[in-house]
Design goal:
Blueprint (H helix, E strand, L loop, with lengths): L4 E7 L5 H11 L9 E7 L4 H13 L4 E6 L5 H11 L4 E5 L4 E2 L3 H10 L4 E9 L9 E5 L5 H7 L12 E3 H6 L10 H11 L4 E12 L11 H16 L5 H15 L3 H12 L2 H4 L22
Parallel strand pairs: 1-2, 1-4, 2-3, 6-9
Antiparallel strand pairs: 4-8, 5-9, 6-7, 6-8
Helix pairs in contact: 1-2, 8-9
Length: 301
């Protein structure tokens, strides 16, 4: 049975109109299976040129749009929680305001949700300026695809590429929503969803082009991200999601990664993190990777 679903997109004052236009149209107008509702969260004030772009997109789209306007910029987690409250459907697809969806993205992902998964992600392709130019592609990020490996790997890294996910809102809300953990809100949510018994699936097929500009690897480090990393690890340990040994490993390895020089951090990311799914087994490109039963993850390993 084909279920209706919503598309959730957050926009803030720093977004570019041309990127937003491409992200929106690729995820709505150009999809072989379009969403039934688009929820756009305007996270705080935006400049006039971005507001005009939003108005044009909303007026010209074939899909009903719900605009949620927040008076101040409160960060991605609270913005997405506000968007979830405005979603009309239990199935919600995520999209960032500067990435590009492949035309068959939802046609490929939605059957896995309809067959029983609570959250479905995919691989993504990193690009700089033009996703249609093979020479502009700079990397591929492949997540773990076997359901048991998704659960197992989640104690060390985020097992989903956030801009690619589709999930059940009921499973998100049962885990407490995104909350407010800047730069780590998605990992924190997905860990709690898995701990709560959500059934995971990932596709090795890249369904989203992920924009990486200058400084992309620089933003994966620094003191601000280190503070968020340490806060995340404390929360995971307090929830019993990780053992003491796993907590110490994560603080040393993930925390240390944030302090490395950018060139070294880029090399480690491309060789180890982005290719994790390829090195630990992959499901078929478009096969059903849904676990037959929920994978509980509170028991230490």
């Amino acid at each position: 049975m084909r279920e209706p679903f919503s598309l959730l997109l957050a926009v803030h004052g720093g977004d570019r109109p041309d990127y937003l236009r491409e992200a929106f149209r690729s995820s709505v107008d150009h999809q072989s299976r379009r969403p039934d509702q688009v929820v756009v969260v305007r996270d705080g004030p935006v400049p006039d040129h971005l507001a005009r772009c939003l108005d044009e997109l909303i007026a010209g789209t074939p899909v009903p749009v719900t605009l949620v306007t927040l008076e101040r910029n409160g960060g991605l987690g609270p913005a997405l929680d506000a968007g979830l409250r405005a979603s009309h459907h239990d199935v919600v697809a995520r999209m960032d305001a500067d990435d590009v969806s492949k035309p068959m993205r939802f046609e490929v992902q939605m059957p896995l949700i309809e067959e029983g998964a609570d959250i479905v992600g995919s691989a993504l392709l990193e690009f700089r300026n033009d996703p249609t130019d093979p020479g502009d592609l700079v990397g591929r990020r492949t997540p773990p695809c076997d359901p048991e490996e998704i659960v197992r790997s989640s104690r060390f890294l985020d097992p989903f590429n956030h801009p690619t996910v589709i999930y059940r809102r009921s499973a998100v809300l049962a885990a407490g929503g995104y909350g407010d953990l800047p730069l780590m809100e998605d990992y924190w949510l997905f860990a709690r969803m898995l701990a709560n018994g959500a059934r995971p699936a990932n596709l090795a097929e890249p369904l989203v082009y992920y924009r990486v500009g200058d400084g992309a690897y620089g933003r994966r480090g620094g003191m601000r991200l280190l503070r968020s990393e340490l806060s995340l690890q404390r929360r995971l340990r307090a929830e019993g999601f990780t053992t003491r040994a796993q907590y110490l490993r994560n603080v040393a390895m993930r925390g240390g990664y944030r302090l490395l020089p950018e060139t070294l951090r880029r090399a480690i990311y491309r060789r180890l993190i982005a290719t994790y799914g390829e090195r630990h087994g992959r499901a078929p490109e478009s096969g059903n990777g849904v676990s037959s039963s929920p994978q509980r993850v509170r028991d230490p390993r």
